[in-house]
User: Which sequence fits this backbone?
């Protein structure tokens, strides 16, 4: 690796699983000290051990991104451990696949509190430290193709990711004067647990639905979590020093086909 993040400290919320773990692992391989902010202590510690075994530096901290005290404490603990904060990846998220006529308000609150509230809280406390440091920083929000592309039974999840897209633009405008860049990545069909769960819920034949989704993608394949880690590294590094307020679609070209599920 090229050590593009040598000496930097990065927080990845939801960093112990799936896309979050791929990003955290890539950052650590590039020289960053990575904090894995995860609700599950066991998952966080397992991810920390995996990164350390691979030669990286990582620390798992328990955090509920929907709880302000928990987020504030996690950022404070990061500073206690490493003395600085350069990158925040607001990756933690959740979803629900419900038809709007059957929507549970409890599900609505859970999705919005985590997907929208978690981004706002993480940005609030990370940006405070980045501002004080005078070094600026990079905040990366993990959105979704569903924030720009209609999919079935996704009103709440899609709405939450649409909000993330606008929050990204607004906070980029608010924080640019402090040298803090804010960008978002919108993954498309990523071959992971969340994507398979979605199709199991909304389709009677999930295997056929996934095959149809694959066929609608210009590049002809589902994405991998590593396909998201690479763009995240770009946005975290100085290679993207003049990039802010941007939504990067990482979807293999699926957005060119309109609604695809």
Assistant:
């Amino acid at each position: 690796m090229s050590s593009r993040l040598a000496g930097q400290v990065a927080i990845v919320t939801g960093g112990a699983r799936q896309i979050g773990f791929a990003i955290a692992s890539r950052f650590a391989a590039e020289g960053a000290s990575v904090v894995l902010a995860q609700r599950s202590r066991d998952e966080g510690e397992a991810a920390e051990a995996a990164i350390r075994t691979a030669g990286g530096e990582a620390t798992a901290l328990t955090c509920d991104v929907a709880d302000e005290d928990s987020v504030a404490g996690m950022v404070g603990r990061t500073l206690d451990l490493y003395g600085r904060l350069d990158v925040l990846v607001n990756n933690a998220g959740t979803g629900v696949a419900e038809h709007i006529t059957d929507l549970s308000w409890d599900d609505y609150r859970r999705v919005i509190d985590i997907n929208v509230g978690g981004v706002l809280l993480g940005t609030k406390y990370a940006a405070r430290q980045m501002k004080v440091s005078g070094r600026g920083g990079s905040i990366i929000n993990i959105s979704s193709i569903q924030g720009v592309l209609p999919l079935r039974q996704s009103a709440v999840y899609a709405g939450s990711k649409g909000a993330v897209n606008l929050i990204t633009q607004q906070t980029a405008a608010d924080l640019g004067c402090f040298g803090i860049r804010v960008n978002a990545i919108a993954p498309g069909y990523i071959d992971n647990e969340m994507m398979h769960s979605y199709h199991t819920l909304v389709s009677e034949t999930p295997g056929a639905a996934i095959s149809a989704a694959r066929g609608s993608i210009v590049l002809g394949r589902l994405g991998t979590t590593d396909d998201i880690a690479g763009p995240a590294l770009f946005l975290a590094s100085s290679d993207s020093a003049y990039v802010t307020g941007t939504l990067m679609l990482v979807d293999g070209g699926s957005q060119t086909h309109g609604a695809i599920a």
In short: Residues 105-133 form the longest helix (29 residues). The chain has two domains: 9-188+225-249, 192-222. Helices lie at 18-29, 41-53, 68-82, 105-133, 155-175, 193-202, 206-215, 225-236.
